[in-house]
From TrEMBL:
<protein>
    <recommendedName>
        <fullName>Sporulation protein</fullName>
    </recommendedName>
</protein>
<dbReference type="InterPro" id="IPR025942">
    <property type="entry name" value="SpoVIF"/>
</dbReference>
<dbReference type="Pfam" id="PF14069">
    <property type="entry name" value="SpoVIF"/>
</dbReference>
Amino acid sequence: MDNQFFKNIEKKTGVNMNDVFELASSLQNANFKDEKTVRNVIRRVSQIANKPVPKETEDKIVKSIVAEGKQLDFGTIAQMINKK
């Protein structure tokens, strides 16, 4: 992809694309059946997006991913964060 493309995304969203790439890389071999791993991912996404996630919302996301086997991706987390 074009470097300017990512710079435009950073300007529009305020999200550092290097942080996003680092997070994506760390997710490749992560164990999403492990509650601690899922909580760490949620907190990292929250930090990158600069949007705090209340404990109750975090618990719901963790439950849906670990216990219910829901797919973990940025869209799923973003959707759940925005439901609060």
